[in-house]
Design a protein that fits this description.
The complex is a heterodimer. Helices cover 34% and strands 29% of the residues of chain A. Chain A is an alpha+beta fold. Chain A has a five-stranded antiparallel sheet with strand order 1-2-3-5-4, with helices on one face. In chain A, strand 4 and strand 5 form a beta hairpin. Chain B has a five-stranded mixed sheet with strand order 1-2-3-4-5, sandwiched between helices. Classes of the chains: A alpha+beta, B alpha/beta. The interface between A and B is medium-sized, with 24 and 19 residues. The complex binds adenosine-5'-triphosphate (ATP) and magnesium ion (MG).
Chain lengths: 141, 114
C-alpha cells in the first residue's frame, strides 16, 4: 500500500525529537522490526539536525521540510532546507569531516546515514538548498 | 533528558536518562562542561542504562569531554549501553578513546585499580 506524508517545522533543536516521533507515528501500522525503526529514527535525527544546525544556523524563523513515502516495502525519507548549502558534497560526506569541530561535532552524521540506509543522495546548491534523500527497504514481519 | 551527577575524588559519574540528541546535548553541556574544569575532574563515567537513543551529537559530546580530561591523563568509561547505542559507538571509533564496560560497578572497579 502506498502512503505519503509532508511536514514542515521551525528550525530549532527541540524539533529534532518531534521529527523522530512523527516518523514513527507515520510508520505505526507497518510491522517493521525494532532494529529497522531505530535505524530510521537515527537517520532522521541526523538529517534534521544538519538542516537546523548547519543549513539554517539555528534560525527558528526558517522551516525544515520532511517528506516520507512508502511504496512496496521501501521507505523514502526526504529532508530539505533552503539554507547555506554545501560547497562540496563529496567532501562533506567523508567520515570525521565537520565544519564545526569547535562545537564538539564528530562529523559522523552522513556516515551514519550511509550505513543505516540502502541509499543516500545529497543534492545541494550553495546559499540555496540542501536536499537529503534516503531510501530504506524493510520487510514486514 | 535528565542527568544525575556524582563527584568522588577526581571522578565524575553521569547517569543519563532520556534521548541524547542535539537538544539534550546543549543542556547537558551547560550542566557539565564547567563542573569538569572547576572540580578538576580526571575520569568520567557515562552510565547509559536509561538512554534509549543517541545520534552523532552524543558522540561529539563524548569526544568533547575526552578532550577536556585527556591533558589530566584522565579516562572515559561508558557502561550499560543498549545494542542500538553500541552500534553507533562501534561505528564512530569511540572505542579508541574510551572503555566500554557492562555496568557502573565494573567502571568503578577499573578506576579504583588504576
Ligand atoms: N543541511 C546542511 N546544510 C549545510 N551544510 C551541511 C548540511 N548538512 C551537512 N552539512 C555540512 O556537512 C558537514 C558534515 O555533516 P555531518 O552530519 O557528517 O557532520 P557534522 O554535522 O559536522 O557532525 P555530527 O553530525 O557528527 O554532529 C557539516 O559539518 C556541514 O559543513
Ligand atoms: Mg551532522
Amino acid at each position: 500500500m502506498k502512503n505519503e506524508m509532508h511536514v514542515s517545522f521551525s528550525a530549532q533543536n527541540s524539533n529534532v525529537i518531534f521529527a523522530r516521533t512523527i516518523a514513527l507515528g507515520f510508520l505505526v501500522n507497518l510491522k517493521i522490526s525494532v532494529n529497522v525503526l531505530n535505524e530510521i529514527k537515527t537517520v532522521i535525527s541526523e538529517a534534521v539536525t544538519n538542516a537546523i544546525v548547519h543549513g539554517y544556523k539555528n534560525d527558528a524563523t526558517k522551516l525544515v521540510e520532511m517528506d516520507m513515502y512508502i511504496d512496496s516495502e521501501e521507505l523514502t525519507i526526504v529532508v530539505k532546507d533552503y539554507g547555506v548549502g554545501i560547497e562540496d558534497v563529496e567532501v562533506a560526506k567523508q567520515p570525521m569531516y565537520s565544519t564545526k569541530e569547535s562545537e564538539d561535532r564528530a562529523g559522523l552524521g552522513f556516515t551514519i546515514m550511509e550505513v543505516f540506509t540502502d541509499e543516500l543522495v545529497v543534492e545541494s546548491k550553495l546559499n540555496e538548498y540542501t536536499i537529503v534523500t534516503m531510501k530504506k527497504r524493510y520487510h514486514e514481519e | 533528558m535528565n542527568v544525575q551527577m556524582t563527584i568522588r575524588g577526581g571522578t565524575l559519574v553521569m547517569r543519563l536518562k532520556g534521548d541524547l540528541d542535539q537538544a539534550s546535548i546543549e543542556s547537558l553541556k551547560r550542566k557539565s562542561v564547567d563542573i569538569i574544569d572547576k572540580y578538576y575532574i580526571r575520569n568520567i563515567v557515562f552510565n547509559f542504562e536509561e538512554v534509549s537513543f543517541m545520534d552523532s551529537s552524543g558522540i561529539g559530546y563524548i569526544i568533547g569531554r575526552y578532550t577536556q580530561v585527556k591533558n589530566r591523563r584522565g579516562r572515559i568509561i561508558v557502561c550499560s549501553m543498549n545494542s542500538l547505542i553500541e552500534r553507533i559507538f562501534n561505528l564512530s571509533g569511540l572505542k579508541r578513546i574510551c572503555s566500554v564496560v557492562e555496568n557502573e560497578e565494573q567502571a568503578t572497579k577499573i578506576l579504583e585499580a588504576a
